[in-house]
Write a structure and sequence with these properties.
single chain, 234 residues, mainly beta, Histone H3 K4-specific methyltransferase SET7/9 N-terminal domain, Beta-clip-like, ten-stranded antiparallel β-sheet, three-stranded antiparallel β-sheet, 17 strands
Length: 234
């Protein structure tokens, strides 16, 4: 059962711009052609969420925007009313929390982007790649292994307190500004490329990411090698 307010055809079906309220109390505002949704329209669901996009023959097609009841947003690609294709989601503060693919309304694929990695335990961040200052990619098993790894091996550069490379930005012809490593000096054949991870050496100051335990151990060992021995008579 539904109630239509707006332009109707000779059969009493919505035709043109109408507002249709369904028995579930869901409401649709948009364009109709003889009872079928055709053109731009927007659903207002009973729980406070909305879905907006372009309809063809009563089904959402192409780009659509679903807004959750809490204000989060999903921007996705719809085929015959279902999510199929690229999509990205944002939380209530506008931060990107997912970017990937959907298939038949279900997240599909192996690479998606998380926001709250800084608050997670180190054990959960072993396979994260820093794309830029705000974006971190989580690489799940088994795609973190070199045999299946698809990103550049620059992401796997080890830490050194005397590195021969630095993290820098590179303008990729397809992806735009992305993170890379750049050499600081001439590098010999078969020489390992290393970078300084930049962890915070004094956690209370929080000037950088807090260092994991292995880093703190290596830091103490490095600092010990840098201490000059005391001379006799001093």
């Amino acid at each position: 059962m539904q109630l239509a307010v707006g332009h109707l055809d000779d059969d009493g079906l919505p035709h043109g711009f109408c507002t249709v309220t369904y028995s579930s109390t869901d409401r649709f505002e948009g364009n109709f052609i003889h009872g079928e949704k055709n053109g731009r329209g927007k659903f207002f669901f009973f729980d406070g969420s909305t879905l907006e996009g372009y309809y063809v023959d009563d089904a959402l097609q192409g780009q659509g925007v679903y807004t959750y009841e809490d204000g989060g947003v999903l921007q996705g690609t719809y085929v015959d009313g279902e999510l199929n294709g690229p999509a990205q989601e944002y939380d209530t503060d506008g931060r990107l929390i997912f970017k990937g693919q959907y298939k038949d309304n279900i997240r599909h694929g192996v690479c998606w982007i998380y926001y709250p990695v800084d608050s997670r335990d180190w054990a959960l961040n072993g396979n994260t790649l820093s794309l830029d200052e705000e974006t971190v990619i989580d690489v799940p098993e088994p795609y973190n292994h070199v045999s299946k790894y698809c990103a550049s091996l620059g992401h796997k550069a080890n830490h050194s307190f005397t590195p021969n490379c630095i993290y820098d930005m590179f303008v990729h012809p397809r992806f735009g500004p992305i993170k890379c490593i750049r050499t600081l000096r001439a590098v010999e054949a078969d020489e390992e490329l290393t970078v300084a991870y930049g962890y915070d050496h004094s956690p209370p100051g929080k000037s950088g990411p807090e260092a994991p335990e292995w880093y703190q151990v290596e830091l103490k060992a490095f600092q010990a090698t840098q201490q000059k021995p005391s001379g006799a008579g001093e």
